[in-house]
Amino acid sequence: MTTLTITDNADGTGATAAVTGSAGGLNTVFILPVDGGIETGVWTTAGTLTGDGSLSLTLPKGYYFGYALTAPASLSGIAYFGVTSGTDSVAARCFAAVAARLQLLALPCTERVYDSLYADNQAVLEYPCVVLTTEGARDTDEAATNGRDDIGHGVRVLVKDVCFRFDEARRDTYRSWRQAILRAFINQRLPGVPESVRCKVEGGPIAAVEADRPQVVSELTVRCITRELRGLGA
Q1: Ranges of the chain with pLDDT below 50
Q2: Which burial class, exposed, middle or buried, applies to 227 when counting CB atoms under 10 A from its CB (0-12, 13-18, 19+)?
Q3: Strand order of the sheet with strand 53-58?
Q4: 43 — phi, psi (to 5°)?
Q5: pTM of the prediction?
Q6: Alpha-carbon dihedral 206, 134, 128, 44, rounded to 10 degrees
Q7: What pLDDT digit, counting tens, does each position of 94-147 carry?
Q8: Cα gap 128→148, rounded to integer Å
Q9: How many CB atoms lie within 10 A of CB 90?
Q10: Are the CB atoms for 112 and 130 separated by under 8 Å?
């Protein structure tokens, strides 16, 4: 049975696909970007090789699905992987991984996920949406080993929509969005972030307090706990 493993090069060049179990057949690797359009996305050919071996995938930074087809009709499982530059901070990679996982939920609010320095970003024009921000959040010291530290990177997840004050029509919709987001992260690692240990989810306000403008209808903080090197130059 064909098996596909894809590893991030972590230098901005892409990733490396390793195919095993193909019994000498012709293998074609297909990839699909994780960009919010999973249900309508187009799988594209990333390369081919004959028999078991490795294949370089030239891809921009982001998150992807991949699978291998061994002619005539043997399929591998689907691999989920990230492509990073090797220079991004751990926090930046956590934000990218959180955004990619939110897009996989395919909710109306996660079709547009914005990474913003500011929570009240007026440049965000399309609703519903999710704004990821560090404004008002804090990192935490979670634990330590002899040579590494567990850092909790706080990612505020603000679900926004145009919601009139005292309008109950979308109450249950907002509750279902919140439930789906919580379940997507709680006590799980972040794929594509090797330092990731697990995620905690901390509850935030569930409110719509201003009239006739986009509201934060739900807020959660995803605390991405990562095990990181210690010391100068780490």
Answers
A1: none
A2: middle
A3: 3-8, 14-20, 53-58
A4: -75, 135
A5: 0.85
A6: -130
A7: 999 999 999 999 899 999 999 999 888 777 778 899 999 999 999 999 988 888
A8: 40
A9: 18
A10: yes
Distance CA 52, CA 25 (A): 8
For residue 44, give both structure tokens: 């594209």
Query: What's the rounded Cα separation, in Å, for the pair 164 and 211?
Result: 5
DSSP codes joined into one string, the chain: --EEEEEE-SSSSEEEEEEES-TT-EEEEEEEE-SS-GGG---EEEEEEESSEEEEEE--SEEEEEEEEETTTEEPPPEEEEE--S-S-HHHHHHHHHHHHHHHT--GGGGSEEE-SSSS-TT--SSSEEEEE-TT---EEEEE-SSEEEEEEEEEEEEEEE--TT--TTHHHHHHHHHHHHHHHTT---TT-TTEEEEEEEE------SSSSEEEEEEEEEEEEEEEE-STT-
